[in-house]
C-alpha cells in the first residue's frame, strides 16, 4: 500500500457501454475517498483492495450527479461512510427507492465552499451537463487536496458556470470525462479536443481521460471537410491520436494525457532535487495562472517568456544586471529606430513582481505568487547568471 497520496481508476465507461462506470478513489493517510459509485464499482473496489492492500470500504463518497451511471451501486457501497453532494443532488438521490433511507448518511455541500473529509480539503464546483437531455441540477466536479497534492475529479460536465479557474490551477492529477473526440455539445460533456485546452489552461501535468464512447463522432463522417476521427476509436487508437496531438502541438513532454483503464493507479511523480547549478534557463510555474521562463543566451541577451491560458509574451533584453540576490533589471534592445521594452523583476515574500515596460506602457506588469522552492531557485538563477 502506498504511504503518500495515490489514486485508482475504478471505472472508465459511460452507462451505454456497459462494464464499470466512471469512478475514482483517492487515498491518503489510510483514508479512502471514493468519487461516484456506478455499475461495477463495488467489484472493482474489491479487486483493487486485493491487489494494492488498501481497505475496500470507502470512508467518504463524493457524488458528482444523480445520473444512473454515477450512483447505481451507491446504496451497497456507501455502508457507514459519509456521503457528500449538493442539496439538489441529495433530493434526486433520496427519491430513488434504494436510497430513500440513506439521507442521514449524507452531508450537503455548496459549490465554491471548501469542506473537510478526513485528511482532505474538498471544493465542489458547479457543473452544467445539459445537452440533448436536460442537465441535472446540483451536478458538480470536485477539487481534492491533501498531502500537498491536488486531484480534480472532473467528469460529466460541459461547462463550469461561474467557476473561479484559479482554484483549478496546477493539479497534480486531472481526471476528465470526454464523451467524444470532436466537440459535440449535445452530449452534455466536453470532448477530447476540448480536454487539450483544459489541460493547458489549468496547467495539469498528469491527466487521465475516461467516459469516452465516440458514438456522436459518427455524425462528422457526413462533413466532407472534417479531418478528425469520424467514429469510435479503440483505447489504443485514442491514445495514439492523443500522443500525435501532443507531438504536433509542441506539448509532448510538458503534459501527460493518458486514456484511463480500469485498475490504473496514479502516484505523484518524484520531484527533482535542486542540486548543483540552475543553468542558463529556468521555468517557473506560479501558484496561480502564469508560467514564465528566463533564458540567458550565449550572446549575453536575456529572453523572457510569460504565458497564461490565452496569451504568450516573449521579449528579449540586453545588459541584464542583478541588484542583491532578489532583483533583476535588463535594458531595452535597440536596433535602428526600434527600441524594445525594459525588464524589472523582484522576488519578495513568495511573490515575483515582473514588469515588462515599453516606454511608459506596461506590456506585462503583475505580481505572481510562487512556491518557496521556486523563489529560492529564481534567486539562485540570478546569482549564477548575472553580475
CATH architecture of the largest domain: 4-Layer Sandwich
Nearest-integer average pLDDT: 92
Distance between the termini: 50 Å
How does the overall form come out from the CA principal axes? globular
Q: Any low-confidence stretches, pLDDT <50, length ≥5?
A: none
Q: Helix/strand/pairing class, anyone?
A: alpha+beta
Q: What is the spatial order of strands in the main beta sheet? A: 15-16-17-18-19-22-23-24
Per DSSP E runs of 2 or more residues, the count of β-strands stands at 24
Radius of gyration: 24 Å
State the CATH topology of the largest domain: Metallo-beta-lactamase, Chain A
Give the domain tally. Answer: 2
Per CATH, the class of the largest domain reads Alpha Beta
How do the helices and strands line up, and which of them pair or pack?
Blueprint (H helix, E strand, L loop, with lengths): L5 E6 L11 E6 L2 E5 L5 H12 L7 E3 L5 H4 L2 H5 L3 E5 H8 L11 E4 L5 E3 L2 E7 L13 E7 L2 E6 L18 E5 L14 H11 L3 E5 L24 H14 L7 E4 L5 E2 L14 E5 L5 E6 L5 E6 L4 E12 L3 E6 L1 E2 L2 E2 L2 E7 L2 E8 L2 E9 L2 H14 L2
Parallel strand pairs: 3-4, 4-5, 5-6, 10-11, 11-12, 12-13
Antiparallel strand pairs: 1-2, 1-14, 2-3, 7-8, 8-9, 9-10, 15-16, 16-17, 17-18, 18-19, 19-22, 20-21, 22-23, 23-24
Amino acid at each position: 500500500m502506498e504511504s503518500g497520496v495515490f489514486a485508482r481508476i475504478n471505472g472508465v465507461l459511460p452507462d451505454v457501454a456497459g462494464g464499470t462506470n466512471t469512478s475514482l478513489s483517492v487515498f491518503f493517510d489510510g483514508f479512502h475517498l471514493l468519487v461516484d459509485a456506478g455499475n461495477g464499482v463495488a467489484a472493482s473496489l474489491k479487486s483493487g483492495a486485493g491487489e494494492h492492500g488498501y481497505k475496500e470500504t470507502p470512508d467518504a463518497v463524493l457524488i458528482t450527479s444523480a445520473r444512473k451511471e454515477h450512483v447505481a451501486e451507491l446504496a451497497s457501497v456507501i455502508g457507514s461512510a459519509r456521503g457528500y453532494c449538493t442539496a439538489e443532488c441529495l433530493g434526486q438521490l433520496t427519491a430513488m427507492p434504494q436510497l430513500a433511507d440513506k439521507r442521514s448518511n449524507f452531508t450537503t455541500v455548496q459549490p465554491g465552499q471548501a469542506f473537510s473529509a478526513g485528511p482532505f480539503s474538498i471544493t465542489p464546483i458547479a457543473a452544467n451537463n445539459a445537452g440533448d437531455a436536460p442537465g441535472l441540477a446540483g451536478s458538480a466536479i470536485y477539487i481534492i487536496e491533501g498531502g500537498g497534492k491536488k486531484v480534480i475529479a472532473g467528469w460529466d460536465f460541459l461547462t463550469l458556470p461561474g467557476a473561479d479557474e484559479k482554484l483549478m490551477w496546477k493539479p497534480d492529477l486531472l481526471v476528465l470525462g470526454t464523451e467524444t473526440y470532436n466537440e459535440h455539445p449535445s452530449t452534455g460533456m466536453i470532448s477530447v479536443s476540448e480536454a487539450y485546452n483544459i489541460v493547458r489552461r489549468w496547467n495539469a501535468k498528469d491527466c487521465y481521460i475516461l467516459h469516452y464512447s465516440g458514438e456522436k463522432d459518427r455524425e462528422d463522417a457526413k462533413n466532407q471537410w472534417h479531418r478528425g476521427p469520424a467514429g469510435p476509436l479503440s483505447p489504443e487508437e485514442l491514445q495514439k491520436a492523443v500522443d500525435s496531438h501532443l507531438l504536433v502541438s509542441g506539448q509532448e513532454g510538458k503534459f501527460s494525457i493518458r486514456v484511463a483503464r480500469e485498475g490504473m493507479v496514479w502516484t505523484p511523480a518524484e520531484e527533482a532535487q535542486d542540486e548543483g547549478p540552475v543553468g542558463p534557463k529556468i521555468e517557473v510555474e506560479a501558484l496561480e495562472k502564469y508560467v514564465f521562463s528566463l533564458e540567458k543566451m550565449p550572446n549575453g541577451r536575456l529572453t523572457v517568456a510569460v504565458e497564461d491560458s490565452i496569451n504568450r509574451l516573449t521579449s528579449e533584453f540586453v545588459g541584464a544586471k542583478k541588484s542583491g540576490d532578489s532583483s533583476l533589471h535588463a535594458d531595452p534592445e535597440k536596433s535602428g529606430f526600434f527600441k524594445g521594452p525594459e525588464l524589472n523583476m523582484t522576488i519578495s515574500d513568495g511573490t515575483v513582481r515582473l514588469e515588462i515596460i515599453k516606454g511608459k506602457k506596461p506590456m506585462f506588469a503583475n505580481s505572481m505568487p510562487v512556491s518557496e522552492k521556486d523563489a529560492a531557485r529564481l534567486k539562485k538563477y540570478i546569482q549564477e547568471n548575472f553580475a
